[in-house]
Write a structure and sequence with these properties.
Length: 373
């Protein structure tokens, strides 16, 4: 296998979204790049990997819930807005044995996630809660047990919780994904073949920035993904056929997926990994896939962002916000785009900001030390 790079964003949602996105971020890239058919049948490789990792999570959820029932414990049923993001950027060649988990700066791929950014306080992190006043995620009801309690019930509760937490430390999924899941947008960049393999579920959009005819300081945006929204014609038809319904509630922004005559799970996308309840009513983990041939003279950069960026910023505006900083200041550009996204959320929604993650990748070093095409 020739040299390649893998770029990805996983945007978790729901009470256990951090568990789902963490697990997928760690396992899914391995499943893809280790498959011997990656270069000969990439669509099959990506599809099988996405479906398999969802099946693993579903089995883990069943085991988790069985353990709770057998232990006489209660699982959290809070339907929260808490979300986190996981990003992966892998530089790989045929001699690579251990896949790095951090960005390779030599590949000029940078990501920024805003975490609790406040006036005069610049804090960046891979994890972000989308509600400024969001509650802490709890795995169980009544998490604060009276440490002085001598009751057998309380002691049994503590012992069972310790057992469950111990199981969570292994590599197998062991959490409740009933109403929690993650988006997944993955791009494999083949340097020698000059190709991009793009596969995704959800709404973490990827955009290609291309040379703009007649302009030296602007670029065009070509969307590599199409957001999986439940009100899209084909997606909505599948959901309704599966027994779900698609509604936009009063005062809400997106259309959401609900059980008939119920106000849950309320998922704002039609495809995701996890969300096992949603999978009973038409949510699927099968990715859309496309192969892109790179033109070194036309194709400039790739931008992947969580939906918190795309809510108030267009693809065209976003890629140009990155490009105007130039190759050598792409990290500053990512920070600026994240901050601008945050500011627009506050301007529109006042006290709620969705998760914000930005990953920008220049496809070649032709523009190094020069912002002109």
């Amino acid at each position: 296998m020739e040299n390649l790079a893998l770029y990805a964003i996983f945007d978790g949602h729901g009470p256990y979204g951090h568990d789902v996105s963490n697990y997928v971020q760690k396992e899914l890239p391995y499943m893809i790049i280790r498959d011997e058919q990656l270069l000969t049948n990439p669509k099959k490789v990506f599809t099988n990997a996405f479906l398999t990792i969802h099946e693993n999570i579903e089995r883990g959820t069943n085991l988790y819930l069985e353990s709770i029932v057998n232990g006489g414990m209660k699982s959290s049923s809070n339907i929260g807005k808490n979300k986190v993001n996981e990003t992966t950027n892998i530089q790989l060649d045929s001699n690579t044995k251990n896949i790095p988990s951090e960005s390779d700066n030599d590949n000029h791929s940078y990501l920024e996630s805003y975490d609790n950014f406040k006036s005069g306080d610049n804090v960046y992190s891979d994890n972000y809660d989308d509600n400024i006043n969001s509650d802490k995620d709890n795995d169980f009801y009544d998490d604060n047990i009276d440490q002085n309690s001598e009751s057998d019930d309380s002691n049994e509760y503590v012992n069972e919780k310790k057992k469950l937490n111990k199981k969570k430390k292994n590599n197998k999924p062991f959490f409740d994904s009933t109403m929690s899941g993650t988006t997944a947008t993955i791009i494999v960049h083949l340097f020698k073949e000059k190709k991009l393999y793009v596969a995704y579920v959800g709404d973490s959009r990827a955009v290609l920035g291309k040379k703009k005819k007649g302009s030296s300081n602007k670029i065009d945006a070509v969307e590599l993904t199409k957001d999986h929204k439940p009100n899209s014609e084909g997606e909505k038809k599948r959901i309704i056929k599966s027994g779900g319904q698609v509604l936009k509630l009063e005062g809400d922004i997106p259309y959401r997926v609900f059980l008939k005559n119920k106000f849950y799970p309320g998922l704002a996308m039609s495809r995701a990994i996890g969300d096992t309840l949603g999978h009973q009513i038409g949510i699927i983990s099968e990715p859309d896939f496309m192969e892109v041939n790179i033109d070194d003279d036309e194709d400039i950069l790739v931008l992947i962002c969580s939906d918190g960026v795309w809510e108030f910023i267009s693809s065209e505006e976003a890629v140009n916000m990155i490009y105007e900083y130039g190759y050598d200041k792409v990290q500053d550009a990512a920070e600026n785009l994240a901050k601008e996204s945050w500011d627009r959320w506050l301007s529109e929604e006042e006290n709620i900001v969705d998760d914000i993650t930005v990953q920008a990748i220049y496809l070649s070093d032709k523009l190094k030390n020069n912002n002109e095409i």
